[in-house]
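From the shared-data thread, chain only:
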Amino acid sequence: MALLKASDLVKRFGNANAVKGINFHIEEGRCVSLLGPNGAGKTTTLKMLSGLLEPTSGSIDFKGKKAKDLRPFIGYLPQYPAFYNWMSGKEFLVFAGQLAKLNRKEAEKRSEELLERVSLTNAKKRKIAGYSGGMKQRLGLAQALIHRPQLLILDEPVSALDPLGRREVLDMMREIKEETTILFSTHVLHDAEEISDDILIMHAGEIAISGSLESVMEAYRQPILQIEFESQAADWLKSIASYSFVSEVSIQGNKANIVLGDMVNGKQTLLKDIVDRKLPVRKFEISQTTLEDLFMKVVKA
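Structure, as tokens:
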């Protein structure tokens, strides 16, 4: 049974359809990344799932039952979490725990556990105003976990962080997903590939692609020939589009990605062509389509 199931979920703002009747489900124990360009409807979807926005129509089932209020089961971290900067880290967590209906003793104990887990024990008495961006994001993760939710929803959890803060939060997420189902949105596709079990790609308010990361990549994977020239070779690159084994050619300056339907024949023919024309090549490499390639194809469709 799915942990959460969204059926024909719609959200309108006036005459604008932000989310257009989407259907998906999240299995228990999975880490799911929600991908899409700005304006795709990701944050609106997450807010509906977390109970912060009421759907215009459609339904959200949790463990097979329709629940009017999902907040007891869900932990939510918005893209830009707000804190009471005059509080210490521990004071904030205890406060959040009591809001989640933990008694004072439970909130104190749970706060200490989570502060240790997110490596903030040494800073628990420090005012939040003095926390770095990474520390605040880790505190936000602790706040979202304070009531032991069955589903953790994170909206762009690493978008505003420097590389060190981003790595700290990703490591936290990798640990958390061992015991809690996670749904998170991100623009950093490498992060999605690194820690996700399943992906949902939204475009223009609709689900364009969904499934396990492994099955989606297998279904859409294509061989790519990556070539880098010492000088411009745009004329030759345009000419090879007529070959039957060439599916797509993308050019960026002196670099080209060539999607091939037949790698063996394509590689041999193009390499011979390059040698015959004496084109100066820096790199000639075989690879496969990535999640970023798939994402760009969906967004441009």
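Residues 18 and 153 are 19 Å apart (CA to CA).
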